[in-house]
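Page 37, continued from 36.
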């Protein structure tokens, strides 16, 4: 069983994960979109048109690139991706849509494919128009290579303090394949997607319908189970490309789909945990496990409710094991909870059971929240379902950062 605060043992976290699968190249450049003059544009390309699936934000206000991308990915075929950071191209009206379509044309010209086979994304400040002269010059300056995955992962960062990368190999039909990916995200993070972008590639021969089903399931258990601050962004997207460069028959039967699905979820989990760990101003990763629930949906609702509680997150930032706030947040999940059947533990200390405190001294309880990972487990006593959510503490640094945030 995997450690819910760490990636699965088989997951490779070394740089360059995005292009570890055969047949993919990537690159990045500094186009001048960010005032920081850090890398801000990335280009990903498959040697052939790939089967594709995407999951988009639940925010009702979609950024322009997402509107264009939903049209392009509808037939399940994408060959290239162009992304910029520092500007979200959101709330930009018809001009934003025109700019997003122009980005797709620029990307397609570099890859030698149709504009409808290009996927474009933007991340950064909302309500500003893209500097299209910089976008076009930047895209033309990128030379994708098989070793360019690490550069791409850095170019998509905004407030992230480190790049998020992961890959894993799996076997199907007697062949070995790779799933690789990278993601960005540190603030405006909330269950049901967040201000995050994630790019996943595989050289396995998987058709779009299976990609769509497996990607949505993986997202439900990983990216949709993280929270930093309770806000869901306008640009959140997860894209999965499968180019079949590894050869072999299509992955369609359960014996082949299962190992693919497990590897996909493992990579997504690693990226999701890194996003939660890297929350703006965060000093602690919160791992919230809910067990003995009546259904997975019930467990997920409770786990999400706890990791998004600002009261609990603020307490943990100061090393306060305020377990009452865990119960309070759980009670806000819209799930029937009988305190007399519950058991709550932080770390190895059981602090509440059968409807009352267990009497653990506060000093001993505080020991469980002094490290960089805080583990909380709540047993509901209602069934056998379980779920895990990940979040982070809420610090003064988060407030200072977002009060001053411009780009």
């Amino acid at each position: 069983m995997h450690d819910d605060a760490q990636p699965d043992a088989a997951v490779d976290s070394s740089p360059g994960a995005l292009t570890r699968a055969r047949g993919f190249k990537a690159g990045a450049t500094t186009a001048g979109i960010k005032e920081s003059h850090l890398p801000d544009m990335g280009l990903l390309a498959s040697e052939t048109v790939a089967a594709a699936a995407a999951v988009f934000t639940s925010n009702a206000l979609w950024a322009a690139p997402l509107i264009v991308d939903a049209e392009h990915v509808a037939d399940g075929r994408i060959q290239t991706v162009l992304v910029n950071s520092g500007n979200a191209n959101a709330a930009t009206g018809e001009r934003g849509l025109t700019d997003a379509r122009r980005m797709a044309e620029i990307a397609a010209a570099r890859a030698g494919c149709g504009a409808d086979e290009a996927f474009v994304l933007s991340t950064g400040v909302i309500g500003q128009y893209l500097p299209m002269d910089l976008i076009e010059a930047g895209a033309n300056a990128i030379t994708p290579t098989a070793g360019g995955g690490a550069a791409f992962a850095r170019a998509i960062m905004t407030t992230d303090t480190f790049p998020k990368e992961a890959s894993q190999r799996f076997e199907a039909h007697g062949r070995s394949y790779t799933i690789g990916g990278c993601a960005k995200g540190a603030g405006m993070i909330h269950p049901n997607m967040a201000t995050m972008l994630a790019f996943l590639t595989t050289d396995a021969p998987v058709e779009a319908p299976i990609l769509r089903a497996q990607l949505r399931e993986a997202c439900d258990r990983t990216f949709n189970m993280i929270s930093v601050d309770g806000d869901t962004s306008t640009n959140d997207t997860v894209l999965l490309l499968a180019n079949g460069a590894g050869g072999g028959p299509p992955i369609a039967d359960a014996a082949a789909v299962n190992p693919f699905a497990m590897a996909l979820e493992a990579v997504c989990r690693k990226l999701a945990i890194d996003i939660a760990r890297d929350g703006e101003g965060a000093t602690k990763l919160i791992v919230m496990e809910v067990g003995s629930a009546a259904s997975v949906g019930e467990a997920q609702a409770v786990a999400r409710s706890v990791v998004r509680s600002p009261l609990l997150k603020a307490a943990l930032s100061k090393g306060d094991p305020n377990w009452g706030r865990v119960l309070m947040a759980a009670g806000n999940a819209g799930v029937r909870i009988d305190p007399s059947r519950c058991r709550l533990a932080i770390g190895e200390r059981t602090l509440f059971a059968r409807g009352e405190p267990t009497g653990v001294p506060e000093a001993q309880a505080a020991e469980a929240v002094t490290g960089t990972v805080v583990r909380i487990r709540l047993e509901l006593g209602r069934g056998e379902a379980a779920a895990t959510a990940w979040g982070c503490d809420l610090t003064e640094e988060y407030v200072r950062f977002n009060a001053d945030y411009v780009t």
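Confidence is low (pLDDT under 50) at residues 188-194. Flag for discussion at group meeting. The chain has eleven helices and 15 strands.
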